[in-house]
Amino acid sequence: MTAKQAVLTAREKIDRAACILRRVIGVPDYDIYLAHIREHHPETTPLTREEFTNQRLLDKYTRPGSRCC
């Protein structure tokens, strides 16, 4: 494995770990949302990052059934 390949592999692992960590702590992942919209709803204009974050916060606090407390 070349140094460049090793760096790319390490970067992929770091990106994956960051994605998992964001899901565990409940931080929405805008990049995953954009990929989903492009693939499954190409006719839809995606939310801006700010709109996306605000919508996720609204969802989090107005749906108490999905929380333990």
Give your account of this protein's structure.
The longest helix has 23 residues, at 3-25. The N and C termini lie far apart (48 Å). The chain has one domain (3-63). The chain is flat, with a radius of gyration of 16 Å. The relative contact order is 0.08. The chain is mostly helical. The model has no long low-confidence stretch (mean pLDDT 84). Helices cover 70% and strands 0% of the residues.
Keyword list:
mainly alpha; 69 residues; single chain
In short:
This protein has 69 residues and is mainly alpha-helical.
Give the low-confidence spans.
none
Average the pLDDT over all residues and give the rounded result: 84
How many strands? 0
Judged by helices, strands and strand pairing, the structural class is mainly alpha
| Order of helix and strand elements from N to C terminus | HHH
* Beta-strand content: under 5%
What Rg is obtained from the alpha carbons, in whole angstroms? 16 Å
- Globally, the shape reads flat
Count of the domains: 1
Distance between the termini: 48 Å
Q: In percent, how helical is the residue content?
A: 55-70%
Largest sheet: none
The count of helical stretches stands at 3
